[in-house]
Design goal:
This protein is an alpha/beta fold. The protein has 6 helices and 17 strands. The strands form 4 sheets. Strands 1, 2, 3, 4, 5, 6 and 17 form a 7-stranded mixed beta sheet that branches. A 5-stranded parallel beta sheet has the order 8-15-9-10-11, with helices on one face. Bound molecules: flavin-adenine dinucleotide (FAD). Flavin-adenine dinucleotide binds next to helix 1, strand 2 and helix 6.
Amino acid sequence: MENEIYDLIILGSGPAGVSAAIYAERYNLKSIMVGEIFGGTVMYPHKITNFTSYPEISGIELINNMKKHIEAINYTVIEDQIVKVEKLKDIFNVYLRNGKVLNSQNILIALGTFRRKLNAKGEDKFIGKGVHYCAICDAVFYKDKNTIVVGSGDGASMAVLLLAPIAKHVYQIIRKDELKTAPDTIEKLEKLNNYTLIKNNEIVEIQGDKFVNRVILKENFNGQKEIEMDGVFIEIGGAPNSAIINDLQVAVDSQGFIKVDNFLKTNVEGVWAAGDITNINGDFKQIINACSQGAVAAYDIYNKSQKSNVPHTNFTLER
Ligand SMILES: Cc1cc2nc3c(=O)[nH]c(=O)nc-3n(C[C@H](O)[C@H](O)[C@H](O)COP(=O)(O)OP(=O)(O)OC[C@H]3O[C@@H](n4cnc5c(N)ncnc54)[C@H](O)[C@@H]3O)c2cc1C
């Protein structure tokens, strides 16, 4: 039996993908969403205070709300890993780890980012043994221990605020001489009494036995290059999750983020991208932006389908 051909396959089930799904359903596009982790990166923030209409909500709560919304509209989500995407004769083939291949006339890439590595000596050896990329997940293991957060952005500073009530001391190390953090967060950092900011410096090596026990710095700090350390939290942002779409030859910027126009269209016919994986808004990668981009992309895909007279089948539930 021949595979059915969707109007749209949404790759990724984070905020960008979920918003696109809500609008795709509204426009009666025959669509489906595939994502490995429903909610995506939203599982990391323990406290979100900047998503409109929620003065404060945890990442997990927000994901649960997204899930409820998707269930309320009976939208089909496949929870699986996409291993490859190719375009053959104007049809996209999306290969899943479970062996299934889905076909579509259009795709929306909403695959987000993965955590960037520091590439310091010893980093790989101690991953999970003192080297971490998610403070919300692992801060709890550092009660009364010495910790260091690498990075100057909001994510890094939030990690400091999370570690400070738990750890003995929290260092934050930045390459330049000032933080790239929102002013209200800087005020909170300045009030901490177990926090030290190390400027114009970087970690060149992470050492230990079974677990991390020291870091080696590039420049002297308090007269030495070595600091005793139990936990290293690397918070230097994300890199685009684009390996599986390399064959499509979608245009990217110098850092690999997908170039899109105002309607989230890429240079490749039938391919849109939304959320953290795009080059829109530079470093300002936020849930609200991802949601907006997913919605705009679905709207544009609908408009394009209208113009090309793609026959719209009724939406079917596949559970
Ligand atoms: C620590 C931290 C704290 C943050 N705090 C905030 C905050 O307070 N407020 C805020 O607005 N933003 C915050 N953000 C940013 C926010 O989480 C992102 O901007 C948002 O999640 C981006 O949504 P997205 O849908 O583009 O990508 P993601 O949320 O990253 O979702 C990507 C989706 O693609 C899927 N995927 C990737 N590769 C594959 C594959 N091969 N096969 C199948 N599925 C795949 C993933 O499983 C996931 O479903 C924070 C981020 C971090 C890391």
